[in-house]
Design a protein that fits this description.
The protein is an alpha+beta fold and 154 residues long. Among the domains are: 57 residues, Laminin; 46 residues, Laminin (Ribbon). The strands form six sheets. A two-stranded antiparallel sheet has the order 1-4. It has a two-stranded antiparallel ribbon with strand order 2-3. The radius of gyration is 23 Å and the shape is elongated. It comes from Stegodyphus mimosarum. This is TIL domain-containing protein.
Length: 154
Amino acid sequence: MKLLIRVFVLWGLLTFYLEASEFPDDVFLFLPFLKNFESPPPCPENEMYRHCLTNCSTCEERGHCVIQSCSEGGCDCIPRYFRLTPGGPCEPVSLCPKPECGENEVFRECGPLCETCSTYRCRVIQCDHKCYCKQGYLRDKDGKCVPEEDCPKS
């Protein structure tokens, strides 16, 4: 998004400048800005260029995203698409195999973003096609789903 904004701003400045004077001698003042501008490389189908890559592009890793690298960037799956195998093409999340859920968990397409004992008051829903705690259960500090009444009182 920032890249797109930069393009529009630079294009607007250049257009305004060229309209203000027919053939300006100093039009090359803009070249340093344009020289530093590089469009991202093209990405395969169902992928987009990201400046910061995550470690959650495969079906197995979905829902456990951590930013892995902001130094180089690269192509990554678009939202709700994952790789069935590492390095494979990005496919719709509906093609991912359902994971085996742990005790007191159930597989759902959507569920609460905040399902831990310390964050359960948050009412945001996410759709990650993953295992969520069963109704009446929350994740403890170890990530296990426990009855709400077993959560520490704050």
